[in-house]
Amino acid sequence: MHIEIETHEAFLLFLSGNQYTGFAFQGLDLIEFEQQLCSLPIQRCFFLGCTLTQPALASLSAKGNTIFPSLDNLPFHPFRGSLYTAQELMEGYEDGNHKSFAKHSIDAQIYAYFKKTKRSDVIATLMERIHDHAIDDALDHTLSQHQRKEKSVGIMGGHSCKRNTPRFRQVAHLGYELAKAGYFVVTGGGPGAMEAGNLGAYMSPYTSQELDEALDILEVADDYKHPLWFDTAQKVLSKWPSEAESLGVPTWFYGHEPSNLFASFIAKYFANSIREDGILAICYAGIVYAPGSAGTIQEIFQDACQNHYGSCEHISPMVFLDKEYWSNIKPVYPLLFQLAQEKKYGAMLGIYDNVCDIVMHIQKHPFITPKQ
Fold first, then answer.
1. Packing angle between helix 208-218 and helix 166-180, nearest 10 degrees?
2. Last residue of a domain, one of 68, 96, 125
3. Does 103 reside within a domain?
4. 0.85 exceeded by the pTM?
5. Are 260 and 128 in contact (CB under 8 A)?
6. Residue 209 belongs to a domain
7. Which one of 33, 68, 103 terminates a domain?
8. Does residue 195 belong to any structural domain of this protein?
9. Could you report how far apart the first and last alpha carbons of the chain are, in Å?
């Protein structure tokens, strides 16, 4: 086990200690400390994408340390030590200029790089895999704090759900009530039902009436292609400052859709398959499925496989919003109900039309382990 050093504060503590083996330094600019570093008996450590001069790298390597250099001219940091924030991904956006997001934002620059190099360059794809590993690591660290993992509830649903629909408003109130009940809301991080879930969690320190006021502001720009989509979101953020936490897990595989601005943590991946399986695996307290299409239905059966075979550390509730939709329009629930008979997760299935009933179902069905 290597002790991870991912912040300058942690690095300063390392320098003040007396142990110099078994560390992994990730994504740090260490040039101002390299003279001190090279004077210490540092051995069997890893330097992952750290900024150091060539003489310092050579000195550390000669002592038996392993160096993973970071490449120049990448629009992303492969060895980053933390999750993204919406503000970081939005950097370069000009207020009032919707097109500036696609032209100048960090998010869009990374997407453009991904499209250009996808499956065509061995070094580019290697850096993307390293990046996603770093996001895995940062996500695990984030969830391990404050019992976020045990309280994580996923909200899945259609990305095309527009802000000016009753469904968007309902999912926002679902995220709100879950956060009020002490749960850590997790979504796919994009627009539609995902944005609604993160918005609800973001507004949880305020009243439900204020959430409705925020929804009134947002519905002017019904989807992410509207020229005021970002600006209305920023207006809500400015009017109702919030420290309420939630997670978005988007992907540059669908990079034409921007990440929503209401998640406090953003775990953005290049590989959509890793992202999808990961979202389902981290939602210990359960997943709520709002109406959606092929992507949502795929997630339902991925989640069912994890529960059916006990392949994760937990078996947790699967709850469906909208009886008519999931029973008749897209009749997934009857099939899943039959599939789950005599399995532990069968007793944890639920289907409701009311937000409060969903929250109550999740509260009454805490996750269990496969051995229970």
1. 140
2. 68
3. no
4. yes
5. no
6. yes
7. 68
8. yes
9. 29
